[in-house]
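User: Just a sanity check before I run the rest of the batch. Below are the structure tokens for the first item. I only need the designed sequence back.
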């Protein structure tokens, strides 16, 4: 905890943003940090809760409130309040490999579970976490190589947050770790999905450099199941961990879907990230919003990322459609706390000028000369049934489908290894040992649990590393 009476003495103060007019003119992060001394004041607001729900109890009962990686939030709040930033950083890194990333892009279920959130004034946990990590990194990000090698060789397929966390943990346990990434750079959605205005890519680059210094070997352009035989990979390693994510996007199979100008969000966002970083284009036709009326279908984080990207590219207008009914502005605390509440969430990208429409179903696309020009829509009721007489059309030059992901891509590696799937199409594995239906092949992250948050990916990667280490050595000292 922080100061015993801090929550009574100090008001919640959080980081601010650059103005919309300023931030839409560049691709950099636009969050304005607090002065360092202010973080100590905010940390002082942490209460001596009997049950600190912010920490989460997910290690025992997945799906419960709080932090999926079980960050020891009251402890490092107290350390920041006391001015002991170095020990706060050690504590934070003991549960989270990449806190500077979660401090930027995690939606902070910990703050929703904070006791002070009962009165809409939770501790600024996310901002304090980010400040601890940034301060520690500014002092020098040190590698932590293992003093002894086990002689065991492990392959990680996919270098998103689950794969990175798993690889780092296994390397620190002394294993020979090789990460196979199909793209030109590591990071997965951290690099190719999250726009730079939310998280600049030097954060990923620094962690990759740290991991390489710890012995992790990255293989780029290595698409397992396409240009690398999956069975050969299994045969040449003592264990294989599949962390390829849930890349199969949810489609919208309505009339006119074939028209040009209709794209999945994850065909659109990576292109701009490559432009910003100077990476060579992937050869696909450029997708840009400049001078266009843009429709984003899907109201989640990916849709929000598309909105912010479209504005920075110079879109004429951006409209965001969500099939669900508009949620309440505020939740009923007595019914929802400390669980993650259903309520209206307005992102920084929404604030940049997007028009939002709820309970809208797209029934068809129409166009001219093979290119989309209109969406045909209807409003729906609580049972997702069209409401007669509410049909409407809206101009559209670019349509971005951001309706989530259904499961991993099955063609290639998954089929080649004949992996068992769960009822949702994810690679089946339990949280007891993370092993798939194939001996010595493990899986973690979105590939196993389905589309989720970066903090869940990190948690899964760390737990899978424990399971692999135990499988290889008979026991493991890696945190579970």
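Assistant: Here's the designed sequence for the first item:
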């Amino acid at each position: 905890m922080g100061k015993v009476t801090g929550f009574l003495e100090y008001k919640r103060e959080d980081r601010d943003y650059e103005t919309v007019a300023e931030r839409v003119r560049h691709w950099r992060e636009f969050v304005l940090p607090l002065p360092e001394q202010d973080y100590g004041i905010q940390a002082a607001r942490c209460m001596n809760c009997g049950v600190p729900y912010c920490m989460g109890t997910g290690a025992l009962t997945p799906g419960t409130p709080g932090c999926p990686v079980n960050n020891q939030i009251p402890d490092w709040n107290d350390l920041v309040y006391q001015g002991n930033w170095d020990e706060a950083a050690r504590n934070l890194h003991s549960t989270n490999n990449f806190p500077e990333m979660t401090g930027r892009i995690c939606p902070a279920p910990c703050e929703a579970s904070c006791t002070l959130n009962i009165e809409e004034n939770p501790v600024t946990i996310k901002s304090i976490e980010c400040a601890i990590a940034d301060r520690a990194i500014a002092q020098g990000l040190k590698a932590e190589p293992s003093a002894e090698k086990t002689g065991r060789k492990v392959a990680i397929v996919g270098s998103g947050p689950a794969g990175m966390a798993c690889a780092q943990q296994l390397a620190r346990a002394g294993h020979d770790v090789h990460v196979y990434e199909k793209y030109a750079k590591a990071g997965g959605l951290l690099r190719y999905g999250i726009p730079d205005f939310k998280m600049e890519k030097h954060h990923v680059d620094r962690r990759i450099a740290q991991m390489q210094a710890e012995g992790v070997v990255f293989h780029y352009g290595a698409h397992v199941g396409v240009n690398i035989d999956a069975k050969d990979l299994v045969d040449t390693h003592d264990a294989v961990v599949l962390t390829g994510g849930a890349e199969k996007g949810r489609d919208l199979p309505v009339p006119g879907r074939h028209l040009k100008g209709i794209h999945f969000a994850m065909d659109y966002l990576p292109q701009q990230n490559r432009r910003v970083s100077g990476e060579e284009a992937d050869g696909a036709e450029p997708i840009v919003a400049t001078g266009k009326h843009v429709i984003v279908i899907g109201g989640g984080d990916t849709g929000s990322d598309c909105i912010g990207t479209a504005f920075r590219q110079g879109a004429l207008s951006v409209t965001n459609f969500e099939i669900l009914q508009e949620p309440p502005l505020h939740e009923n605390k007595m019914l929802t706390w400390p669980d993650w509440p259903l309520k209206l969430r307005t992102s920084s990208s929404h604030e940049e000028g997007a028009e939002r429409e709820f309970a809208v179903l797209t029934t068809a696309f129409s166009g001219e000369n093979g290119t989309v020009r209109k969406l045909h829509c209807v409003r729906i009721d609580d049972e997702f049934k069209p409401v007669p007489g509410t049909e409407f059309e809206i101009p559209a030059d670019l349509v971005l489908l951001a309706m989530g992901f259904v499961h991993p891509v099955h063609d290639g590696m998954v089929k080649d290894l004949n992996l068992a799937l769960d009822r949702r199409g994810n690679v089946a594995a339990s949280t007891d040992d993370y092993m798939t239906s194939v001996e010595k092949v493990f899986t973690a992250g979105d590939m196993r649990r389905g589309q989720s948050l970066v903090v869940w990916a990190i948690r899964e990667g760390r737990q899978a590393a424990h399971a692999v280490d135990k499988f290889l050595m008979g026991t493991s000292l890696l945190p579970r």
